[in-house]
């Protein structure tokens, strides 16, 4: 696993097309022969439910402002590009701090139905580092999301 520093922070752009999303992975050299690109969220804790807006702020700080990831499973591994929060309402894509997980470093990937809307994805590395996130199963008017998520899910069945 490598956490790389490359490029500059980019203000959150519209990523409603696969081509726009793939450009981020090309910029950090995490684009391969096949690519399953989609977006996902950090798995939320109970803090926001218990403490409302204060809990949400604590949650954001606890996750180092990471709200979710641009996700790509490709032939060399998995790339996670953080989506970070500047404030509660403004997000940006942080290509400076992307995470590349080599296939050889992955111990297992666990995928479960969280509910009717989300798939829970847990990536466990051989060094016991864990990445837990959730991906919405379908996003209206974003056809690539469901297709690529399903391809990713099939890869780890």
Q: Can you describe this structure?
A:
The chain contains three helices and ten strands, in the order E-E-H-E-H-E-E-E-E-E-E-E-H. By secondary structure, it is α+β, with helices and mostly antiparallel strands. Strand 5 (77-85) and strand 6 (91-94) form a beta hairpin. Mean pLDDT is 82; it is low at 1-13 and 45-51.
Quick gist of this model?
Strands 1, 2, 3, 4, 5, 6, 7, 8, 9 and 10 form a 10-stranded antiparallel sheet that branches.
Helix content: 10-25%
- The radius of gyration is 15 Å
Portion in beta strands: 35-45%
Instruction: Write down how many β-strands occur, each being a DSSP E stretch of 2 or more residues.
Output: 10
- Derived from helix and strand composition plus strand pairing, the structural class reads alpha+beta
Instruction: Indicate the overall shape.
Output: globular
Give the number of helices: 3
